[in-house]
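hey m, so remember when u said the tokens were messed up on ur end? i reran from scratch. heres the input so u can diff it against urs
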Amino acid sequence: MNRSLDWIADSLKALEQANLRRFRTIRQGAQQASIEFQADQTTAPLINFASNDYLGIAADQRLVSAVQEQILREGWGSGASPLITGRSQWHAELERRLAEFESSEDAILFSTGYAANVGAISALVGSGDTIFSDAKNHASIIDGCRLSRANVQVYRHNDVAHLAELLAAGQGGGRRLVVTDSLFSMDGDMAPLAEIAELAEQSNSMLLVDEAHATGVFGSNGTGLCEVHGIHSSNMIRIGTLSKAFGSCGGFASGSLALVEWLYNRARSYVFSTAMPAVTCVASLAALEIVQGEPQRRQRLVENATYLRERLQSDGWNTGHSASQIVPIFLGEPERAVALAAKLREAGCLVPAIRPPSVPEGESLLRISLTSEHTRSQLDQLIETLKAMRR
């Protein structure tokens, strides 16, 4: 008997013993601030502090209606790569609207934000080129760097001086790419984008900024932290997602016309993937209208995050340098994070335990993800539950 896969069971057991194994769960019903959630064979109503639906749009009836109408008109599947017949009029319209939203010349859609990062990075640089990447960049950025086969120089998290040192010491020819998240998805802190953009300009480097967790949330127009810092450069590539604040799915890259044409021809995760259904584009267009037309959602989100962070900090929890809707509680070891997450779930709060490899060794945490639709009473329930756990 072929037993070549027997190692998997032992490896899963080792993960479980180290409190690093993930178990599949099921959400029942709509994605919203309160959900039905099944884990460990039990289902319970929980306050949802785990979703990236930051503006509470995912279950909005306007998205539902747009999807229903589109399905009746054109069906579901796209049937082919965007380069063949998969790119519909709705894909083109969403790309046009996103470019307008981002104040860029053009935009290009990907099936996911992960695919956008992997595709863009590996299309922009290759063997003989150099990437300068923040130590806490998202896994999709890390994987894009690896797939590019470029030389990767990792600078210490948000350390502009270290980045400057690496850029100054860079040797050889080839293209140079500086890449960073604008809002870091686990720590909830923000990159010093103005300083990074200046270094990229001075060193004749391209700059890729992943705004996945900032798109729709920050800036007077909701376009992200580049807007907040007033950063506009012809040498910049911005990555965004439609699966977080937009409550839909898909990712995109925006920038110059030449950039988008190059990605259209050379981003492998775009060229060799079936286009996402046109229905998702229609949903995203409806979400874009909400993001642009209802800035009060962003304001409520900021108020919720400020309130929660201040209360948790006053209770002695370590929330690091978070300045956003992502509020971590740093705990150190994975077993403590797993234990607290389980106790919170028993008390009616869904807060995920984040462990390696999602974060570095010794930096396990609880990741509290807020939405504009969380009520003050829901936040207070979480605060009081955590306070009781410290006693």
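this time it looks ok to me. DSSP finds 15 helices and 14 strands in the chain. if urs says something different then somethings off w ur setup not the seq
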